[in-house]
Amino acid sequence: MARTSGSHSQITGPRLRAAALRLFARHGYAAVSMRQIAAEVGVQAGALYNYIPDKQGLLADLMRSHLEELLAAWDLEPKGTGPLDALEAFTRFHIRFHLERPDAVFIAYMELRNLDPRNFAEIEALRKRYETGLEDILRAGRAAGVFDLPDTKLATLAVIAMLTGVTTWYRPGGRLSAERVAALYWEMVRKAVGA
């Protein structure tokens, strides 16, 4: 992409993304203008287009980056042996990863409605890959008689919703540490799947 003379693309690009992430999470995608993002970064509104194609592209890029990072991190996570170990690993990983990124999580789950159909299909496919990882664990556990589940798809959606909801109320320095929250949620997930 072309850039403005004297600008620093390695600095301005990431600052633009960070500002958009904060503003979208705080006010919602529809309520944030490109002028607000530019003001937050300290550049003219027209200069933003040296770094992004448009506001829709910026939203999709923020979601894509979050989900690709999530998938890559989950791929590297030790899963233990057997479905129960894998489910515990998933639970603890999901909470740890998401608590470190509350704004990205909010946008990835709450702003899907603002994506155009092409971007929606791409982002939804990435979300589906992550959900399928959990559903595979639940299917394996049900097949092995470790989990008592009537519907693994419904259980997948319920577990992810429960785990992701932590980002709406958790605050660092609060009554419970992140590790304690993960331990308590693991107990709830274990019981929810009939382990």
Question: Layout of SSEs?
Answer:
Blueprint: H1 9-27, H2 34-41, H3 55-76, H4 82-99, H5 102-110, H6 117-143, H7 152-164, H8 166-169, H9 178-192
Give the oligomer, counting copies of the same chain as homo and different chains as hetero: single chain
| CATH fourth-tier homologous superfamily of the largest domain | Tetracycline Repressor, domain 2
Task: Let me know the average pLDDT.
Answer: 90
Largest sheet: none
Instruction: Tally the beta strands.
Output: 0
Structural features, described:
- The protein has 195 residues and is mostly helical.
- The protein folds into two domains: 9-52, Arc Repressor Mutant, subunit A (Orthogonal Bundle); 57-192, Orthogonal Bundle (Tetracycline Repressor, domain 2), CATH 1.10.357.10.
- The protein contains nine helices and no strands.
- It has helices at residues 9-27, 34-41, 55-76, 82-99, 102-110, 117-143, 152-164, 166-169, 178-192.
- Helix 1 (9-27) crosses helix 2, helix 1 packs across helix 5 and helix 3 (55-76) packs across helix 5 (102-110).
- The longest helix has 27 residues, at 117-143.
Briefly, what is this?
By secondary structure, this protein is an all-alpha fold. Helix content is 69%, strand content 0%. Helix 1 (9-27) crosses helix 2 and helix 1 crosses helix 5 (102-110).
List keywords for this structure.
195 residues, mainly alpha, Arc Repressor Mutant, subunit A, Tetracycline Repressor, domain 2, 69% helix, 0% strand, disordered N terminus, DNA-binding, DNA-binding transcription factor activity, Homeodomain-like_sf, KstR2_TetR_C
